Amino acid sequence: MKINNESICINYPSPTLAIVHSNVRDDIIYCLCKNAYLIQINTETKEVNQIMPLKLDKIDFEKSISLQLSDQDNLISITNSKGKVGCIYNLVLKEIALTLDRKDYNTEQTYFPIKFLTINNLDYLIHATDWNHLEIFDFKLKKNLTERTTNKYVEGKKNELYLDYFYGQLHLSPSKKWLLSSGWNWHPVSSLKFIDFNKWMNESKFEPEKENDANRIIMSNYWDRALCWIDDDTIAYIFDPMEEDIDKEEIVEGGYEIDTSYIMIYDVSKAEIKQKIKFNEYSKNEYFEATPDCRMYFDGSILISSIEKGLFILNKDSGDILFHSPKTSLSQYNKKNNLFYKLIRNKDIEIVRIST
Q1: How far is CA 139 from CA 43, 88, 112, in A?
Q2: Do 73 and 91 form a contact (C-beta atoms < 8 A)?
Q3: Where do the structural domains in the chain lie, given as residue ranges?
Q4: Which pairs with CB-CB distance under 8 Å and at least 24 residues apart come from 329-336?
Q5: Has this prediction a pTM greater than 0.90?
Q6: pLDDT tens across 55-81, in order?
Q7: Minimal CB count within 10 Å: which of 64, 82, 258, 288?
């Protein structure tokens, strides 16, 4: 395998705060700048196109900002990565299409739960409106499709479907069969929550509040966990038994080895671990949890990246390490164009392509 790195200087007077790669063109990256302008960078010609100023009064420019694009690049989301508010801009009409607010209960703990999706050429948005509440917004109808009050108290009592769960980063399976949240429950503990998206979209707006056998609690404080979808029924995630603060006897009883971390291959439909791949090569904190820079992707092989350890590419079946680049760390991935990219020092973009 071979790593091809390209560095692009953003020739624009205001510092860049966040970037997102086009889903339509392989030579376009959108950038949000500190002057609140959205610009385009052509990665081939290096030309800068100033698209428009954005009204972002509630966005904190001193904190991390995240961008997402819809499948056709016609909508863009701007949120503080771990904040309470955000907005969706229509890039065709150059106007705000939707404002976002997930309120302020422990929002600093998780990434803003948000995900664009397109079904039959129509755009939708899954987004949090409270710590324990997700909605689906239809941009054509300009309405919320899943309005319900399960997160409300009535006469001082919880709704019978009240959900005691803090949503985290959202991950859709390849064909949108499952929606996965890497959030947490009170103890606090890490909790992977699975929602049957087809049922939620087409059968019952209360699907997120229903218990699912696939839901998985891990007794650690590591939410927004490094993970990825392998296929529509399988995820891979990083796990160290020491995260759960258990003694060595319990680790052995659980079928693990001492001082060993794993990539867990989990079958969502069967709610069972299919495989444990031994893997210690990622950076951890003092609690044996992966550091925030740790990322995990799947493109036929499993890719795991952290600043300290670099990039590893593993065979998904055997777990064999196929490739290691100690000085390469990945930050964002554009699956449609099969490339990785990251912002460096608010002025440079690094593009990484992996070839065989």
Answers
A1: 30, 10, 20
A2: yes
A3: 59-225, 226-325
A4: 329/293, 329/295, 329/305, 330/295, 330/297, 330/303, 330/305, 331/293, 331/295, 332/19, 332/20, 332/21, 333/295, 333/297, 334/21, 334/22, 334/23, 335/299, 336/23
A5: yes
A6: 999 999 999 999 999 999 999 999 999
A7: 258
